[in-house]
Design a protein that fits this description.
The protein is an alpha+beta fold. The chain contains six helices and 14 strands.
């Protein structure tokens, strides 16, 4: 079934939801809404996104009817900001596993992989007013039925329906995701969130590059989501998401 405004608003009332048939970026719309005072849990959803953002400024276009694109407004404590990407990756992983997918993993810091190919990206963006944290927008773009065959992304990206061999209803996916986001938002500091994230990571043990070409082996992660990398001289570095490249990035 189509993901329409009527279906969404009727299903999620009284949760604040804004639906756009077509939009440049759900994160941009949610950031504006957040700055105007939107409550925690408010959601922006679209059927087609033409100027979506990924990590390192990449632009991601999503054709109509092919993906689940949403941005959720959260109001965490500032000490837990490092766990928002963690939350997003975990809830997407839980969704895929709930659908019966077997080969689900998280590529640090923000890509969820299905059958070793990217199926979803997670992008948190923060608004501050001086030293006061106003909130966070958690953007997620989940490939549902995008056809990557014959494109340069055919070996790197995948969609849910061809991977599972059956159709799914995006409203059902959205319902599951929001329920899990609500759950983990209430448990953002819990050890169980970190454990759920860490056990799905496939980055430890791989060589990564960081800080102007320096490289090392990813050994582990810390409780706030940073990658612990040991360079060739034996020095252990704590690396944040914006400072590292993995694989072919």
């Amino acid at each position: 079934m189509n993901l329409t405004e009527d279906r969404i608003l009727a299903h999620f009332s009284p949760r604040p939801v804004r639906y756009y048939p077509r939009i440049d970026s759900t994160n941009d719309a949610a950031l504006k809404w957040l700055s105007q005072g939107a409550p925690a849990g408010a959601v922006v959803v679209t059927d087609e996104q033409v100027q979506g953002r990924g990590r390192l400024g990449r632009v991601w276009f999503t054709p109509p009817g092919t993906a689940l694109i949403l941005s959720v407004i959260l109001r965490p404590q500032s000490t837990h900001l490092g766990r928002i990407t963690m939350l997003g990756a975990v809830v997407i992983s839980e969704l895929l596993e709930n659908l019966g997918a077997a080969d689900v993993a998280i590529k640090w810091p923000n890509d969820v992989q299905l059958n070793k190919r990217k199926v979803c990206g997670v992008l948190p963006e923060v608004i501050w007013r001086g030293s006061e944290l106003l909130g966070v927008v958690l953007g997620m773009g989940l490939n549902v039925r995008i056809d990557f065959s014959g494109t340069e992304l055919a070996e790197k990206a995948i969609s849910i329906e061809p991977a599972l061999g059956r159709s799914v209803d995006r409203l059902d996916l959205l319902t599951f995701l929001l329920a899990r986001i609500d759950f983990w938002s209430a448990n953002l500091s819990a050890q169980s969130l970190f454990d759920a994230w860490k056990r799905r990571l496939n980055t430890p043990g791989k060589t990564v590059s960081f800080e102007k070409g320096v490289s090392g082996v990813a050994e582990s992660v810390n409780a706030e989501g940073a990658l612990l990398v040991r360079d060739s001289k034996g020095t252990l570095h704590t690396v944040l998401a914006g400072d590292v490249s993995l694989g072919s990035e």
